[in-house]
Amino acid sequence: MKKFLIVGACLFVAACGSGGEGDEIASGTVTGSDGETVEYSVRGEDDKGSISINTGDGSLEINSKGKGSRAELPYGLKLPAGAEIKANINVNQSGDGTSGSMVSFETNDSSEKVINAIKEQAKSAGFEIKTEINSGDSKMFHASRGDKETINVTASQKDGKTAANVIAGGKK
After folding, report:
1. DSSP readout, 43-104?
2. Total-model pTM
3. Which tens digit of pLDDT belongs to each residue from 144-164?
4. Fewer Cβ close by (within 10 Å): the C or N end of the chain?
5. Domain boundaries in the chain?
6. Under 8 Å CB-to-CB from 164, ≥6 apart: which residues?
């Protein structure tokens, strides 16, 4: 199954930037040496794309919404007002209930303000801050709720702009 996910991820990356809205870039069925069958479908449009992989164990869906899209973060997390989305990726896996999101964005807020705002949201959602790293204008934190849900945030400030990433998700 893992080798199919790697192949799927490669197809997904190749699909971004290809085709028009809703165009199917590739699809098919692959049967492994163990007889396991995997169906896949890749769709793409400019910097947006999706891949679906279905097996007997469940399904995996990866969506990239691209620049300027609306952030879809779990746990009620919100980005700073005026944040410009650079990348927005959502992953859902049916077999074990794993899901998550990764949003990269840029803002005029300081890295400290970004980190503190999202950290407070995480605490309000019941997450415990496990790790914090501060190195000049670069900041990060890792938080978890139980042993199945995590949030990781990084923010680096340069020339009056802050580039940040929020990665959040886990198992249901």
Report:
1. EEETTEEEEEEEETTEEEEEEE--TTPPP--STT--PPTT-EEEEEEEEEETTT-EEEEEEE
2. 0.72
3. 999 899 999 999 999 999 999
4. C
5. 1-60, 65-172
6. 83, 104, 105, 106, 107, 111, 114, 153, 154, 155, 156
